[in-house]
UniProtKB/TrEMBL annotation:
Residues 22-76 form the HTH cro/C1-type domain. PROSITE patterns: HTH_CROC1 (PS50943). PANTHER family: BLL4672 PROTEIN-RELATED, BLL5781 PROTEIN. One of its GO terms (molecular function) is DNA binding. It holds the Pfam family MLTR_LBD. It comes from Amycolatopsis taiwanensis. InterPro entries: Cro/C1-type_HTH, Lambda_DNA-bd_dom_sf, MLTR_LBD. This is Transcriptional regulator.
Length: 275
């Protein structure tokens, strides 16, 4: 099992008024003042005063509005700071003893998923941990893509990464960029915007569908790639921690790959048995 550590990054929302930030989050979620007031059980008048800066929200009000607006924990801390309160959600290092139980659970998931690949990524798609089978996917990638902080999107789509071995690169590109765009829309994270700008600039010699229309029998977008002379086909599932109260945990995601056909499953099991 491999462990990768990367630098933390801060968003650039410091200095903005809490009312302006709350209004931006409400507009981003396409929720009216009336609807938010009803769900958060606050008067529309008071909410309007908070957004315009005529009233200072209490600490509990900031947290309540952040929850109802589904604001990421990192940004809820920024809302609190903008309102003059201390952050309440910790951002622990991955090796923090406080995260020991969660870290052990993640590693059990990764190890138990062998011989199929599984990765853990942070909010920026940086590779945090991976099981040994992930080497089947990253094999042949340029060293600069694998260190110092591997990024799974860059590895997947870069012409010196997995891309030359991906049989359905156009489909995969559309799926990954679509996921990243939705993440940008949900979080407004400027670092994700930079990542999106970079990876969509990578070349692709296949048509990239604007709208994914499944062909007969398809129920997911597969990852199809060559490993030597063997064609492998995978689908994946994504798991996150339920109700996390730590920024680091809230931003972790486990993506587990499963064989999409019997030939891929048999091939991976043989590799494991012969290792």
């Amino acid at each position: 099992m491999k462990t990768f550590q990367g630098p933390r990054a801060e968003l650039t929302t410091h200095g903005a008024a809490v009312g302006d930030l709350l209004r931006l989050w409400r507009e981003r979620r396409r929720i009216s003042q009336l609807d938010l007031a009803i769900t958060a059980e606050v008067s529309t008048r008071h909410l309007s005063f908070v957004e315009t800066g005529r009233a200072k929200p209490s600490r509990e009000m900031v947290l309540r509005l952040g929850e109802h607006l589904d604001v990421p924990l990192r940004e809820r801390n920024h809302l609190l700071l903008a309102a003059g309160y201390a952050p309440v959600y910790r951002e622990s290092a991955l090796d923090d003893p406080e995260l020991g139980t969660a870290r052990d659970a993640v590693r059990q998931v990764l190890a138990g998923h062998e011989p199929y690949p599984a990765v853990v990524v942070d909010r920026l798609w940086n590779l945090v941990e991976a099981n040994s089978s992930v080497s089947l996917l990253t094999e042949g990638s340029a060293p600069e893509l694998l260190a110092p902080v591997p990024n799974v999107l860059k590895i997947a789509l870069h012409p010196r990464g997995m891309a030359p071995r991906v049989i359905n690169l156009g489909e995969l590109r559309a799926d990954l960029l679509g996921r990243l765009r939705r993440q940008v829309e949900a979080t407004a994270d400027p670092e994700l915007v930079e990542l999106l700008d970079e990876v969509r600039g990578y070349p692709c010699d296949q048509p990239v569908p604007e709208v994914e229309i499944p062909s007969h029998g398809n129920i997911f977008v597969p990852l199809r790639l060559w490993h030597g002379e063997q064609e492998l086909s995978f689908f994946s599932t994504i798991a996150t921690f339920g109700a996390p109260l730590d920024v680091t945990l809230a931003e972790l995601a486990i993506e587990s790959f499963y064989p999409a056909d019997e030939a891929t499953g048999d091939y991976l099991r043989r590799i494991k048995e012969n290792a």
